[in-house]
Structures are given as structure tokens and as C-alpha cells.
Amino acid sequence: MIAFVRGEVAAVGLTTAVVAVGGIGLELQCTPGTLATLRRGEQVTLPSSLVVREDSLTLFGFLDEDEKQVFQLVQTASGVGPKVAQAMVAVLRPDELRRAVRDEDVKTLTRVPGIGPKGAQRIILELKDKVGVPGTSAALPDGTTAPAAGWREQVHGGLVGLGWTAKEADKAVEGVAPQAGDTPDVGALLRAALQSLSRA
């Protein structure tokens, strides 16, 4: 298991980041909220989780240990793989997810692409005794900012990566554009875009 990755950010894409570690570039799948905190050339430490499949090794990177633990925990529920788990931590902060499971809030869980009412009920049933109480772990950092020039691409890429069509993502990006301002918070804009899509 690779518990964390520490090194210099070599590249930041729409859904991945490359961190240079000992002369090797490790590609990590990250949520838009995590990618928004990364800058090329900066030193970072990202908690990580390695998902092993017959035909692939995929490394996922996270803002903090709390997000990583939630990502790993939700995969213990039937029918939740790494892609859906990543969508869950992209849409819901760890405490939001804990609260939704504790309160049996199906509506909140179904905001995540790939989770329908039956899937949400199954997650609640299987995780209720495991997920813990909101506030028991460190919350994610407050909103992070990204250069204005790239927020549209990041939010659009994040939405497509989470399962929405390019057309739906275009519409959602235009819908949240008035909220961007001079220092756009990519994580907040993504959450707003996801909310608008789930309402639609």
C-alpha cells in the first residue's frame, strides 16, 4: 500500500496530477477540489490509496487523511467501486457524508452521479455502524482558489469525469460562472454545478 506521496508537482490535468518522487512521476487520480490546491513546481504531500485490478494499478490522491478514509470506507459497501467512491468524496465532504448516512438522507446521497435511491439505501444500511459521527475527524480545509483562467476547464473536466455528459457539463459551468469572481474557488464551483445538475 502507498500511504502517501510526497514530492514536487510536475503536472496538473483535468482529473489527474503527476508528482515527481525520486525521479519517478506518479500519476494520481484526484477530485477537482484537490487539483485546485495544487500548483506546478510546489512541494506537496498527498494521502493516497492504491487500487489494484487485474489489468491496472490506479493511485488516488486526497486533500487529507479524512477524505482518504471515507474513500476507502465507502468501497466496503456493495456496488461501490473506486470511481463511485471518488465521486462521493468530490460531491460530499466527509462530514456531509457521515451526516447523510446517520440521518438516512437518501436525497443527499443521490446527488452523487452513479448512486440511485436503492444504492443510497444500501450504502446507509451497510455503513451506518461504520461511518462514525460528524466532526470526529478533521474537516477539509476551507475553500481553495485557482487561477481564473483554468476554473472552467477544471469544473467541466471534473463533471465529465464524474459521469455527466459534456453538454450537461457545459450548461452547468455556464450556470455557475456568475459565482466565479476574481479568485474562483474550484471546489465550491464544482459543488454548485453538481447541485444544479442534481436539481435538473
Automatic annotation (TrEMBL):
It is found in: Cytoplasm. GO terms for cellular component: cytoplasm; Holliday junction helicase complex; Holliday junction resolvase complex. It comes from the Bacteria. Keywords: Cytoplasm, DNA damage, DNA recombination, DNA repair, DNA-binding. GO terms for biological process: DNA recombination; DNA repair. Residues 72-91, 107-126 form the Helix-hairpin-helix DNA-binding motif class domain. InterPro entries: DNA_helicase_Holl-junc_RuvA_I, Hlx-hairpin-Hlx_DNA-bd_motif, NA-bd_OB-fold, RuvA, RuvA_2-like, RuvA_C, RuvA_C_sf. One of its GO terms (molecular function) is four-way junction DNA binding. Residues 153-200 are annotated as: Domain III. Homotetramer. Forms an RuvA(8)-RuvB(12)-Holliday junction (HJ) complex. HJ DNA is sandwiched between 2 RuvA tetramers; dsDNA enters through RuvA and exits via RuvB. An RuvB hexamer assembles on each DNA strand where it exits the tetramer. Each RuvB hexamer is contacted by two RuvA subunits (via domain III) on 2 adjacent RuvB subunits; this complex drives branch migration. In the full resolvosome a probable DNA-RuvA(4)-RuvB(12)-RuvC(2) complex forms which resolves the HJ. Has three domains with a flexible linker between the domains II and III and assumes an 'L' shape. Domain III is highly mobile and contacts RuvB. The RuvA-RuvB-RuvC complex processes Holliday junction (HJ) DNA during genetic recombination and DNA repair, while the RuvA-RuvB complex plays an important role in the rescue of blocked DNA replication forks via replication fork reversal (RFR). RuvA specifically binds to HJ cruciform DNA, conferring on it an open structure. The RuvB hexamer acts as an ATP-dependent pump, pulling dsDNA into and through the RuvAB complex. HJ branch migration allows RuvC to scan DNA until it finds its consensus sequence, where it cleaves and resolves the cruciform DNA. Belongs to the RuvA family. HAMAP family: DNA_HJ_migration_RuvA. This is Holliday junction branch migration complex subunit RuvA. It comes from Nocardioides zeae. The lineage of its organism: Bacteria, Bacillati, Actinomycetota, Actinomycetes, Propionibacteriales.
